[in-house]
Each structure stands twice: as C-alpha cells, then as structure tokens.
Amino acid sequence: MNQHQRSEVEICDEFWPYTKAETAAKPSKRESLIALIQAFLSKRACVRCTFTVADEKYAADLLSRDVSFDQIQRAIALGCCRKYVSLLNGFNSEPINSLGYFRELIEEAEDSETPAGYWSYVMLELEHLEAKWLSKVKDAADAKLALAAASKAKQTR
C-alpha cells in the first residue's frame, strides 16, 4: 500500500472489543412524531412542559396504539383553548406542565362524529384565545410596572 494515499480499514466485530460508532441515522418515524408533538406543545404560551421521560413514554405509547398525530394535535388544541378560557375568566391556575394533562382529551378528540370543520374552528379559536390572553398578561404587567414606578416616585419625594 502507498503510505501517501488515504485508505480505510474496517476490523471485524469478533476482533474489535469496542462498540462501533453509529453513523448519523435518520430519526425513526416514531421519533419524528414525538418531536412534532413536543414542538406543537412548546408553541403554546399556557404550556410549560419540559417533555420529560414520562411524557416521551406516553407519546410513544399513544403512537404504538396508532393514535394519529392529528388526534393528538386536536386534543392539545382543545385542552389549551379550555385553559385559556379559564385564565381569561380570572381563574388563577397553573400552566400545563405535562402531556398527561391531555389524556382524556385525546379520547375526546377520537370521536368520529365530530365534523372536520369543528377542528378547524378549534385551531383558529386557539390562536385567538392565546393572543387575547397574552395581551391581557402584557397589560397587567404594564400596569404593575406603572404602579411600581408611581410608588417609587412618591417615595423619592
């Protein structure tokens, strides 16, 4: 062999005591769907889900039971809409912090008698309610800053 020419040698498994490095494989369909679920959850302002191992296992379980991504997405949208309505009505509740929050809603989103147009409405309503809630939160934060500034101004007089 020419020592100036580049070449590659592969040692057979029975002579190599170490594990071989895996090549960068494409993510499986399951991993891709789990990533989509995680991305859809992270878009919502009412969700503070860090997507734990339990969430990943639950998502994998849903996919192994052939629950479609659309059904999961519908359940998340429906749950978030209900959460925003609760928040807008003044109920001081915690943000959603787990995929398990949507467990019953996933069953509800499976109903085949629900027209497809309803789910389009839910998606639009989700955007509308989220924008309304974010505006309310921003206004409340601005009001708190104004009160704090006014209070500080009184103290310095």
Description of the molecule:
Helix content is 60%, strand content 0%. With 157 residues, it is mainly α. It has one domain (28-140). Helix 1 (29-43) crosses helix 2 (53-64), helix 1 packs parallel to helix 3 and helix 3 (69-88) runs parallel beside helix 5 (116-156). The longest helix is centred in the C-terminal third of the chain and has 41 residues, at 116-156. It is flat and about 80 Å long. It starts with 28 loop residues before the first helix and ends with a helix.
In short:
This protein is mainly alpha-helical and 157 residues long. The protein has five helices and no strands.
Record the SSE blueprint.
Layout: H1 29-43, H2 53-64, H3 69-88, H4 103-108, H5 116-156
Helix pairs in contact: 1-2, 1-3, 3-5
Poorly predicted runs of 5 or more residues: none
Radius of gyration: 25 Å
Report on the biggest sheet: none
How much β-strand is present in the residues? under 5%
Structural class by SSE content: mainly alpha
User: What percentage of residues falls in helices of 4 or more residues?
Assistant: 55-70%
Number of strands: 0
Domain module tally: 1
By oligomeric state, this entry counts as single chain
Mean pLDDT score: 83
What order do the SSEs take from the amino end to the carboxyl end, as H and E?
HHHHH
Using the alpha-carbon principal axes, give the shape. Answer: flat
Our count of helices gives 5
First and last CA, distance:
88 Å
